[in-house]
Amino acid sequence: MEQHLGTATCHMTARVSTRAGLISPLPAEFLYQAGDPYAVQLSLGPSTGSARVWTFARDLLAEGVERPAGAGDVRVAPRCRHHPYSLRIVLTNRDGTALIELPAEKVAGFLRQAFSLVPPGTESRHLNIDGTITALMGRSR
């Protein structure tokens, strides 16, 4: 796990299962940036090439460590009896559904880093509203 200037990252190996029954290990990386305080990114696949990036709520990931959470394209569930050391994330898009199993302790460590950068309830203090509006309007500062 790394933490640099408002950024936390965590590299790990994910086990990915699809409805077709394929199970394969893939490199995975979580990224949290204080400038986007409500979101985490999960990158699946090689760092060089066509990695898939999913962005979802930091609070969804944190809740999913404790109990099943999410109702849309991203759902997170804690350890189960059969895999007590893994966190399960179900990702759904128009191409299908995948079950991602990640080491629960690494995810918990990543969340501790993210919450140390931006404690819960202080996210709004870290937003750059003026910069976002400028970017949306296509103007440079």
From TrEMBL:
UniProt keyword annotation of Cell division present: yes
Matches recorded under Pfam families: SsgA
Compartments it resides in: Cell septum
Keywords assigned: Cell cycle, Cell division, Septation, Sporulation
Family statement: Belongs to the SsgA family.
Protein name, per record: SsgA family sporulation/cell division regulator
Originating organism: Streptomyces eurythermus
